[in-house]
Structure formats: C-alpha cells, structure tokens
Amino acid sequence: MRQLLFLLTFLLAFLGLATFLFTYQQDEKRFSSLTSRLFEEEMEANTLTLHYTLANPDNFGIHDYRAVFPCYTAQGALQGQAGLENILAALSQIRPEKLSSQDARLWRLLTRSLENTLALEGFPYYSEPLSPASGTQSQLPILLAEYTFRTRRDVEDYLSLLDQTDEYFSSLLLYEQEKAAAGLSMPAAFLKEVREQCDTIVTMEALETGSHFLQTTFQERLEPLAESGLITAEEAANYLAQNDRLLKTVMLPAYTALGDGLLLLEDESILPAGLAALPDGKAYYEQLLISQTGSYRSVEEIRQMLTEQFSREFQEARKIADEHPEALEYYGAVETAFPYTKASQMLLDLRERMETDFPPIPGDPADVHVKAVSESLESYCAPAFYLTAPLDDTASNAIYINRQKTPDGLDLYTTLAHEGYPGHLYQTVYHNRSALASGELPARQLLWYGGYQEGWALYGEFLSFDYAARLLQEDGQGMAALCARLESHNRSLQLCLYSLIDIMIHYDGASYSQIAKVLENFGITDSAAVSSVYSYIVQDPCNYLKYYLGYLEILSLKEDARELWGDGYTEYRFHSFYLDCGPCDFATLGELLEEEGA
Fold first, then answer.
1. For residues 181 and 263, is the Cβ–Cβ distance under 8 A?
2. Entry pTM
C-alpha cells in the first residue's frame, strides 16, 4: 500500500512538473515566435533599417525580401496602429514569469516601448520627418553614402532604393499636406529652410561633373567587390552607369518635386512656436519626452533636476574662476595647447585611459575610421556622428567629423570620446557582441532608447574632460588642464540651459521674446545667436533632453548603485551593470538595479 501511495505521489509530482515545464516552454515558444515574426516583418518593411541592423540577413531567417522604403499612407498609419494593439494584446497573453530572465527583460521593454509608441499614435500629425534640423532630406543621403557593399545583392538593393526615392519623397510630401490640412503645418520659415536644402544637397552641376558624394562614394564601395572578383569589371561599369542615371533621373527630380510641393504649403501667418501652442501639444510633449529620453519622470521633476544641476555646475565653475582668475585669460588658448593633433592619437589615448574603469569589449578590437562629412552636407549635419554598426558586423566602424563645426584640440578629443571611446562606438560594439554571444532574441534590435544611448555618450564625453585634464597635466600644462575642467562645467551649463529652454518652449509655451530675455541673462545677446537657439529647439523638441536628461539619469542611477552596493561599489561594476543591461528605459534600469541587490 505504501509503495502504491508513493508511486501515486511520484506520478502526481511528475505530472505537475511536466505541466509546469510544458507551460514554461509554451510561453517561451510563443514569445520567441511572436518576437521573431515581429523582427522579420519590421526588417522586411524597411531595407535601409535592415541593412544597418544586419550584415547577413540570411543568418537571421530573412531570405526573400524586396528592397523597399517605408512609404507613408494614411491607411498604412491606421493599419500600423491596429498592428500595435494586436501585438500588445498578444504580449499580454504571455506570462513574463514563465520566461527566461533575458526574455522576461525583453518582454518588459517591448511592452513599454509599444505602449509609448501607441500613445504617440494618438497625435498623428505632430511629428516632423522633414525637420530642417535633422530631417529625412538631409539624413537619407548620408545613409546612402555609407550603405556598405558586402555582396552583389547589396549593390542591387541600393540601386533599387535609389529608384524609389521619388515615391518615398512623395509619401513624405503627402504627410506634410495632410498635416497642413489638419492645421498643423510647419512654419513658413522652416519650410523655406527645407526647400533650400532640397536645392543644394543634390544638384545637376555636381552630378554632371561626377563630383557628387553619392557618385564618388558609390565608386569607392564598388572597387573592393571588383578587386575580390565578386563582380566583373563590366558589371561594375554597368552599376556605375545605373547609379548616375538614377541620381539624375530619379533622386534629383525627387528633391525638386519635394521642394516645389513644400512651397505650396508655405503660409507666412504660421510663425515658429513650441508644441505648447498646438492643441494637446503639452500632452504630446509629455509622451514625446518618454519616447525620446526613456525617463518616466514628470516634467516638473525633470525641471527640478535640471535646475539643481545647473546650480551645482555654476558653483563649480565659479569656484575655479575665483581661485584661478588667470585661467579666464588663458581659456581660449586651450585648443592650441592640446598635445595631440590626430584623431588616431586621441582615440588611442581615450581607450587606454578608460581601461581601468570599463569592461573590455568582447572579442577582437574594433577598427574605427574617422571620416570627414562631405562639404555639401556640412551645413545640415551635426558636428559629428557615429554610424551604428550592424548587430553581426562590428569589426569596422566609422565616425564622421563635420570640419565646419568641430575644431581640433580639446573639442575634437571630447567629440571622439562622445562618438567613439567610451561613447557610442564602445557601447554599441559591446552590446552587439554580448547580445550575439548570449543568444539574445534579435527583436531587441527594434528597440531604440535615445536617453540610454545619447546619455551614455555624453557621460563618456564629460569623463573625457577629466582625461584631457590629466593628459595636459602630464604634458606640463597645468593651466590648460584647469581650463579643460572649466570647459567641462561650461559645456554642462550650456546643455542644461538649453534643456530647460526646451521645456519652457514646448511645455510652458514661452515665446521668442521670453527666451531672448532668458538668454540675455546669460550673456547671449546677439540676435542671430538667439534666433539660432530658439529655432533649433522649436524644430527638434526633446533633442537636448535626450542627451542631458539621459546623462542626469545615469548620474542618478550611479547614486542609487552606491547606496545599494555600499563598499561593493566600483566604477567598473557600475559601468558593467549599465552595459550588460543593454539599451533600456530608465524605469527598467532602476528596477534591474533593485533586482540585482547588494
């Protein structure tokens, strides 16, 4: 009898365990299937995103795709919103506690990200894809110029995309027309800026002489394929001819048609103003803040954080000035005093100085090429940018420097820290290699967290001011080292001020004259400078906050880690925690820190 009872008990326990394992596996399989399907659909819907995300799509189950741009249609937008709701409904049926820790983290991130995206869908005409500051019209040529040719298929996909630029730009114009019809048109002054960009980014003069960067870079990218035998000399010549033809007959007319279409939308009565001036603009701004920064703090809490940081930075800067008044006289000479002049020297120095406090990148060292932005794009590009490497190809990386906006010396050194080490390049390569090694689901690549990434890059940039000060001190330039520390506070004050102004314009509804008075209090009185600051922030809401609030969130997370870990806290441990979590919103990072415990 006892044996029978034992057997029954064992069978019941076994059945319970089997049911648990089946349920666990069921949730894992459903989640894996859902995210795989979502990833594949998103990649197949946008070839540009696919190419910059994966070097070898076949390895990720993406085989038969057609090269396409994600053209806008009103019907497509509605379908996209319905699709988001369906995915969220499917995710809600999966129990995260039944997933592995890695997949449970992705479930949490994916759910929050999709909820944010769905909330923004409630404001269909509030975004601006053609912003003069960073719109598609100026960004697309850069992405095309850096479109890597690894195979024949890459060349043919690229040419196919070129052949669709007219349809793509037509869809963007349609969106702008619908925006105008909804009473949300871009201000006339901004539309004029975009038209000027359309007139100058691609010109017949440059194309006729073969000097346009989309011609020269195309040839440069073809040459390795011909040299390795992947394509013949005859095929290379044919591709070159196709590229020239498409640039002249499709892309140039696409820019012309876009500019002409925008001209018809210009209404001189519509003046530059913040989101607060729009119906529901404040509500949109609050949601945009979450989407762009990954911070779930209220606007008032963010304002308080910024105000307190501004006070701290100001006090530190004044202390240096009071104790070393001679530093103010020397301040402008710190650029010429910098020991290194070459980008390669600076990157090497940065890598060596960060070694003690940062985990090494898995695998072989990542190569980096520093390139100059084409002269025709200098006016429309950021001072510098890192071109994000694909998930499965991080061996070679590119950092672009805009020589029109980035001088040499200390400024170049800190810029390379922001874009390279320990900034974007380091963080991207570290995460991509770690993700592949750990078998992380590729759907993680669909999630973008501006605050995590730009905040980290700015965090690395501020660390580099300390590195620079040590370098200058080692070089016997004590005064220059002091000026480097002063410049760090000055940079922080500027970004903090502009972040506060972002809130004033887009949440409080501050006017141009009110912002001019604020800037005047800080010694900025030149009308051109005031107009430039105001216009840029109006054109690109939350951009400064994406960087600076992201940076402050990292500092806040560090303080929480110090309290939680006590004597176990080290810079190395904190940096490892942040990097190993991978791109996240800051609410999730805070939860993960609590879960890690002491």
1. no
2. 0.93
